[in-house]
């Protein structure tokens, strides 16, 4: 490791670009995922930025490398320890030494944000924290950059994936709170001690950060009233269905008469609300403002690779000046004949064997039928089906053959179907 | 107007900050909205950045100010003319003169993007274009910054609000294509000549831009195969419901064997797809990558103030260095007692007058009942209702009174309801 402050970048030779040294504090789920992800994307990042990121030091409680050593040898420090101390001290030390910092630590920012942001301004370094709220969902960047000039009225969020998973399972399966929590723990969506997730404290820290950015006013975690989901029953879910409502743990930060209000509590949402369809361990945030109407962003709220991706986006932003569209680094062929599932709508004579013959023609082109709806209309019938994915050229060939069958009336209608690919 | 290139900022005195001069090319829907929005936010922007944006020149076809004059007097040029020429020439001239450019012009970038991005790199200026795709939905910034290091597999989008409005109305009301188009025109969601919207060409330009950013390879509009919605029938909508599918005009840019495929066409989506619930004139884009799983962003895809907000976000980003969290500029009070609608769940004795008494107690606190579900359970009954918004303190007082009524069994259960506020 080198640590010459006058020479922030080491030269690695032109082909691979200058090196940008990243020090990791912490090597748990997120730190480990980052240590895996970053090298796999280093060539791409070097190609678009001319700078090659590399991990030059890792500090854990037990690996014998001190945090001071990692900080000294880095251009940027990724704080992935969590908790208030020693994370706060390390982040302050890194910034005082002129190093950029990226952190995923929501409690640190909800307690000590003003101190840390002031230190970043004082030392002229970047302190980025996309991963601290809603994982890879880019709400921090959007609030700080896209909407920095906007007059924001309200931020509403599902910012805890554990509770959203539990509530989704209770709604879908009628499971009790206890059973849904157990399932979440088995699937890795809840920790062995889920207290801070289910009681709303985790979400409260995130809402404090979002409120600070949205309203440009200091918000400490003690300003956020929170209530958890432990007391909800399957009964509430059943009645929610009768009333056409969905039950979520919702964080709200909004302008109200006399100031702002920041809260976390269970809430029913009407079906039309943009957060009502956010299910499972996903997070989502809606930002409202008169001029923009609203923006909603959603995605995985946790997970090692996902959170590490958010950290990596912050690292790249700290490395390079913004908003230059780099030269293209590759020249991919644009392919026109691709696979798709299809909806096929046929008007046919209503006589036996029609479906079998259509299915046979489809089969000759490699198309297999997934679902069928058939309706009689006097002498005629309507045959509507969905076929499994196949090349478009094959589907078009099958349609030509089907159009030529003597029982087919009019032109077959064909529309693509996008399969369920998000679980 | 001053145009001394050696003095990019005029000093306006400390309180209001340095001035940042913005030249507008075009003063239609978006330009007019920006000319209204920007001055209303200038104090806030000056407070957080120390720099005050001001519009120092406007060029229209008929106002007598030339584009060259506007460019000469600006630090940043907002190109809001649309079309290929003279927009392309003006943008090139502005960048050659060392001015940043913000544009909302998708056709310009889909045709001439590589030339323009190369010019921006050559002259060391920023060329930002958030408003060119999906209005205020921050997909450009997220692709260029948050996900610049990611290996993206697929981008899927509803990127034309006109067609999404038409398809939504056809699905909701059973309207024909022609009637839904007419309604869209009456509401201002479709232009008098809607050709480029309904035939998919507008969406194709946007997908070319998204594919370029996602895959880091040149994509020209002629690389994008497109198909419109003009041939869809209400019949397709009805069958879609039978098959539990939703019909949208979908743009797809994805890696396939041999390269990438970029297309726009109508497609059915299964209900679980993140774009299936995007209705009306909204736009939405889903980005998939193995490490991040997926991110979805949605919001208004058009509209003067919305598009102008996207332009304003780009302007501020061009003004200031990134990602410093500015000092707070205000100190808003955090209010704890706020209004909310409530779900109230009561176990009561099953006898006449119970609902009336509960409603009376609620009424005393100013709470009015919106909807009620009552179920008999032998001697007991369950009364579940939603009440219209009132202060939480008043609701809690009402609940205390209700808990004391002699026919109420057990503790009333109260959960907040978030009202439909998005139309």
UniProtKB/TrEMBL annotation, chains A, B:
Pfam families: Homoserine_dh, NAD_binding_3. Keywords: Amino-acid biosynthesis, Methionine biosynthesis, NADP, Oxidoreductase, Threonine biosynthesis. Residues 343-416 form the ACT domain. Pathway: Amino-acid biosynthesis; L-methionine biosynthesis via de novo pathway; L-homoserine from L-aspartate: step 3/3; Amino-acid biosynthesis; L-threonine biosynthesis; L-threonine from L-aspartate: step 3/5. Gene3D superfamilies: 3.30.70.260, Dihydrodipicolinate Reductase, domain 2 (3.30.360.10), NAD(P)-binding Rossmann-like Domain (3.40.50.720). Its cofactor is a metal cation. It catalyses: L-homoserine + NAD(+) = L-aspartate 4-semialdehyde + NADH + H(+); L-homoserine + NADP(+) = L-aspartate 4-semialdehyde + NADPH + H(+). Its EC number is 1.1.1.3. PANTHER family: HOMOSERINE DEHYDROGENASE. Belongs to the homoserine dehydrogenase family. Catalyzes the conversion of L-aspartate-beta-semialdehyde (L-Asa) to L-homoserine (L-Hse), the third step in the biosynthesis of threonine and methionine from aspartate. This is Homoserine dehydrogenase.
């Amino acid at each position: 490791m080198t640590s010459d402050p006058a020479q922030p970048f080491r030269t690695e030779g032109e082909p691979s670009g200058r090196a940008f040294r990243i020090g990791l504090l912490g090597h748990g789920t997120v730190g480990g995922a980052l240590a895996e992800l970053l090298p796999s994307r280093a060539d791409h990042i070097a190609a678009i930025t001319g700078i090659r990121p590399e991990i030059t030091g890792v500090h854990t409680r037990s690996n014998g490398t001190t945090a001071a050593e990692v900080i000294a040898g880095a251009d940027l420090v990724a704080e992935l320890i969590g908790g208030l101390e020693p994370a706060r001290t390390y982040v302050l030390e890194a910034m005082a030494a002129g190093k950029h910092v990226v952190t995923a630590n929501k409690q640190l920012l909800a307690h000590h944000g003003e101190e840390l942001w002031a230190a970043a301004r004082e030392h002229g370094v970047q302190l980025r924290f996309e991963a601290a709220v809603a994982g890879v969902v880019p709400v921090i960047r959007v609030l700080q950059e896209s909407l920095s000039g906007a007059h924001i009225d309200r931020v509403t969020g599902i910012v805890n994936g554990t509770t959203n998973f539990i509530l989704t399972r209770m709604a879908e399966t009628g499971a009790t709170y206890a059973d849904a929590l157990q399932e979440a723990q088995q699937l890795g969506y809840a920790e062995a001690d889920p207290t801070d997730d289910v009681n709303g404290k985790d979400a409260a820290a995130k809402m404090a950060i979002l409120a600070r950015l949205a309203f440009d006013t200091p918000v400490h975690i003690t300003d956020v009233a929170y209530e958890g989901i432990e007391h909800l029953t399957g009964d509430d879910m059943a009645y929610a269905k009768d009333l056409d409502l969905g039950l979520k743990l919702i964080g709200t930060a909004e302008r109200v008469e006399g100031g702002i209000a920041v809260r976390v509590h269970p809430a029913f949402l009407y079906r039309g609300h943009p957060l009502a369809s956010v299910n499972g361990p996903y997070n989502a945030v809606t930002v409202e403002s008169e001029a923009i109407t609203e923006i909603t962003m959603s995605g995985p709220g946790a997970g090692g690779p996902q959170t590490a991706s958010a950290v990596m986006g912050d690292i790249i932003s700290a490395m390079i000046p913004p908003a230059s569209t780099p030269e293209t680094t590759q020249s991919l062929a644009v392919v026109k004949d691709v696979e798709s599932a299809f909806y096929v709508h046929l008007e046919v004579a209503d006589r036996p064997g029609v479906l079998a013959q259509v299915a046979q023609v489809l089969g000759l082109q490699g198309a297999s039928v997934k679902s069928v709806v058939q309706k009689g209309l006097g002498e005629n019938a309507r045959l509507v089906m969905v076929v499994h994915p196949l090349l478009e050229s094959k589907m078009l060939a099958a349609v030509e053959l089907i159009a030529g069958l003597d029982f087919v009336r009019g032109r077959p209608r064909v529309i693509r179907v996008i399969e369920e690919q998000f679980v």
